[in-house]
Amino acid sequence: MLGKRFVALMALGVVALAGCSAPAGGGGSNPTSTGSAANGAAPAGEAVNLPQVGATVDATEFTKRTAAAMKTQYHAVTTTTMSGTTAVTTADIDATDADNLKMHTVGAGSELIFCDGKSYIKTGSKWTKSSADLSKTMEKMTNSIGSGLSQSVTYVGASQLDGVPAYEYKVTAESSSTSGSAGAISMEAHYWIDAQYRLLKTSSKAKVGGTSVSSEVVYSKFGEPVSITAPM
Q1: Where are the domains of the chain?
Q2: How far apart are CA 105 and CA 97, in angstroms?
Q3: Where does residue 6 rank: exposed (0-12), middle (13-18), buried (19+ CB within 10 A)?
């Protein structure tokens, strides 16, 4: 069912951002190395060190810092288009405990709750429980792809999103790995982060095993309490 595929894609993406694993990265300058061009300077009031616009930064370090910053509670709205169909999912995430990620997503005709190492999917009025650990599933997928993955992260510049200072990075990744079920992957994504390295927005286009997927995720409500419990 297409709806479940959308929910699964969104859920796996959230797990990755919660820092279950950091993909292998290339070289380059530190993501907060000093020096900034005029168009890449921090907006007024922001005390952050930035790379030069167009500079390549260390992909592994960038991923680690962003993942660490997202170990909090937050809300995410994801718009995904795949095979000509678009779906919107909303999610509340509690990633404060690395050993007990909690998540509640709604959209694409399904509802998913993940907590205490279990996942629950609701279709219609019926909940179905799975013993699969979503974070471990994501880790296995990442490891199966990671051996053939090459990626780069480039600093684009500073701007504002809804009045909040934002720093844009372009991430490109390619993998020819055929291990596992994912197949070859190519992706270009843009990440907008705040001064604390929290994601404000991501926009990506990818091909996974020949299937085109595009998505946009908007993040908000950082640190606001969420209550996520098993439905059964």
Answers
A1: 2-220
A2: 18
A3: buried
Q: Give the helix/strand (H/E) hosting 121.
A: strand 118-123
Backbone angles phi, psi at 7, to 5 degrees: -60, -40
Q: How far apart are CA 172 and CA 20, in angstroms?
A: 20
Amino acid at position 152, single letter: S
Beta bridge partners of 9: none
Q: Is 87 helix (H, G, I), strand (E, B) or coil?
A: strand
The C-alpha angle 172, 222, 230, rounded to 5 degrees, equals 95
- Is CATH 2.30.30 what the domain over 2-220 is classified as, yes or no? no
pLDDT digits (tens, 9 = 90+) for 31-74: 444 333 334 444 444 445 789 999 999 988 888 888 889 999 99
C-alpha–C-alpha distance, residues 172 and 56, integer Å: 11
Q: For residue 29, what is the DSSP state? A: B
pTM of the model: 0.77
